[in-house]
Amino acid sequence: MVSAGFQILGAALGILGWIGAILVCALPMWKVTAFIGSNIVTAQITWEGIWMSCVVQSTGQMQCKVYDSMLALSSDLQAARALTVISIVVGILAILLSVAGGKFCWTANTIIQNFYSPLLNSSQKYELGASLYIGWGTSALMLIGGGMLCSNCPKNEDNYTAKYAAARSDISSPPGKLSTQYV
């Protein structure tokens, strides 16, 4: 039998995951400047997301610039854009259907490889930003919610409570007039 509480919990986790995917798409904190070695200048912090890059001054002032060209972006950010938008659209469909999210590993792999690359200056290195962690958490919520909804399908059981009997004709009725009784 289908558990209503289990189904509601699965749908709620799916909705939370979908909201998290929207946050991940909107937040510009995919890559955050790394403060390593002698690069401890904290007068400004650089954030790079899939749609824009931002610089936050120590005074609290923040300036963001939307990327001018999609073709100028690295392949991991182009893929992250596409996969994040696809996950949001599929999340909408999943929420609407309620019965049946973004691939962030590629971007994380690129950030980690660049961080440990000896070819880059320490001022060019980035760390994993909060958006990636939120994205991984929301992916887990979506998978758990979807799994709960899928595992909640009723089993194919032949235990029906309604039982029907075939109609019988009454032999005691006069010829030409047939009465039918239902049991």
The radius of gyration over CA amounts to: 29 Å
SSE series = HEEEEHHEHEE
Unreliable spans: 99-103
Class per helix and strand makeup = alpha+beta
Q: How far apart are the first and last residues' alpha carbons, in Å?
A: 29 Å
The pLDDT mean sits at 76
Tell me what the structure shows.
Helix 1 (4-26) runs antiparallel to helix 2 (75-97). Strand 2 and strand 3 (52-57) form a beta hairpin. The chain has 183 residues and is an alpha+beta fold. The longest helix has 23 residues, at 4-26. It has helices spanning 4-26, 75-97, 105-115, 130-151, and strands at 31-33, 44-48, 52-57, 62-66, 126-128, 168-169, 180-181. It has a single domain (4-156), classed as Butyryl-CoA Dehydrogenase, subunit A, domain 3 (Up-down Bundle), CATH 1.20.140. The protein has a 5-stranded antiparallel sheet. A two-stranded antiparallel ribbon has the order 6-7. The two termini are 29 Å apart.
